[in-house]
Write a structure and sequence with these properties.
145 residues; five-stranded mixed β-sheet; 2 domains; alpha/beta
Length: 145
């Protein structure tokens, strides 16, 4: 079987220059981005306190199986920026465990913004307080409904 040789494509000088300009602009954009991002990160290190959540939720993380699916309960207003950032930070910190914003599970994470009677809050949802880890983090026991 004979091999067919493909002819080599020669691009016009304007095309080569255009690709070169695009590559240089892309590299310049990367340098500008990192020049902006460095000082920004120094000024606003962790606006959602993700690192603090890791320390705050560590006891819970150790107490719950890594393959667990957990319910989630908070006192933050549903749909608020605070509520969403708390949930996402908890979800990130507790991974690979899965969190669901429902209370129908055997174990439910309580993630609260202020001190309260956590046992009473749990009873409102048919949950019993299993363990208080401090700093607004609790683990509830419930029926898998």
């Amino acid at each position: 079987m004979a091999t067919v040789e493909k002819p080599r494509v020669e691009y016009p000088l304007a095309t080569k220059a255009g690709v070169l300009v695009a590559a240089v602009l892309a590299l310049w954009g990367v340098l500008e981005y990192f020049g902006f991002e460095g000082p920004y990160q120094e000024q606003y290190r962790d606006p959602y306190q993700i690192a603090a959540q890791s320390a705050r939720l560590e006891g819970l993380r150790q107490a719950v199986a890594s393959d667990a699916v957990l319910g989630y309960l908070t006192d933050a207003a549903p749909g608020s920026e605070v509520s969403d950032s708390m949930f996402l930070a908890a979800q990130y910190t507790l991974a690979p465990r899965l969190l669901d914003k429902k209370t129908k599970y055997r174990q439910v994470v309580g993630n609260f913004t202020r001190p309260a009677d956590f046992a009473a809050i749990g009873r409102q949802y048919g949950l019993s307080l299993e363990r208080d880890f401090g700093n607004g983090v609790v683990l509830y026991r419930g029926d898998a409904r």
